[in-house]
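Long-time lurker. I teach an intro course on protein structure, and each term I like to show students one example going from raw sequence to a predicted 3D structure in token notation. This year I'd like something fresh instead of my usual example. Would anyone be willing to generate the tokens for the chain below so I can use it in lecture? Attribution to the forum is fine with me.
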Amino acid sequence: MSNPPNFARAVDLSSLGKPKTAPAGPLPGLEVTAANLTSEILTLSHKKPVIVIAWSVRSPESMEMVKLLGSLEVSYQGSWALGRLDVDAEPNVAQAFQTKSVPYAIALIGEQMVPLFEQNYPEAQIRLVLDKVLTLASEQGVGAAPVEVSEPEEDEAMIALEAGDFVSAEAAYKKLLSRKPSDNFAKLGLAQTQLLIRSDGLELATVIEQAVQNPSDISIQLMAADMEMVNGRVEAAFARLIHVVKETSGDDRSKVREHLVALFALVDPSDSRLAAARSALANALF
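-- Reply from a regular --
Happy to contribute to a lecture. Here you go:
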């Protein structure tokens, strides 16, 4: 059973077929092999974090992730290094890194392995993970913490958010997106701000009680999920909407699914609750 586009999973190595032809053109990053793992890759991890991405020619998604990380390595101006691990060519190294699926990313910090993610994610979410890696590494004396560079509209939005003016913050993010439509951080900021707008003035207990009394009212269930997200009850919000997906069909199901996917984008991609919810949603849909 195939997954819809928004629910791409990692590909289990045991399910992959025979290796296909090599990718056209060179892939970015340092090739990780048994020969250079200790002498080059681990040694480098004492100077800066090394992000190792396990990939295979049998998984086009994993090759795309290698390319995306390559572009991010350039944009981060050498603050971390990219290593690419061909699991077909280096099965022993893949096993040493506990690789069970591709794409699979880990960070090496002072020779210590930190698992990151096991499936494709949007660039904005990967940047959040990379920033956390850089911060963690700097705390351990490896490399420097990420330097935040913000856009004027982003500064405007943050000032508005601190003042509780969510409408002005929303307008600022929209203004930034009109100038830079592909700015993923602006998209994330807009989504977070719109969640705050939807939940502004509501009381969690009141909304949850309404949801209990009106289980078939989709609008109230969406509102309850929003309130649960705002109050840190991530698993409850996901479970609520997955249940509604199971109980609905047609346009109603699409509306709930789209709302849930929007909430997914607000959670750290490395969060195990997100992976579990994505799997549960896929099962509910199919």
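Some talking points for your students: The longest strand covers residues 50-55. Residues 1-11 have pLDDT under 50 and may be disordered.
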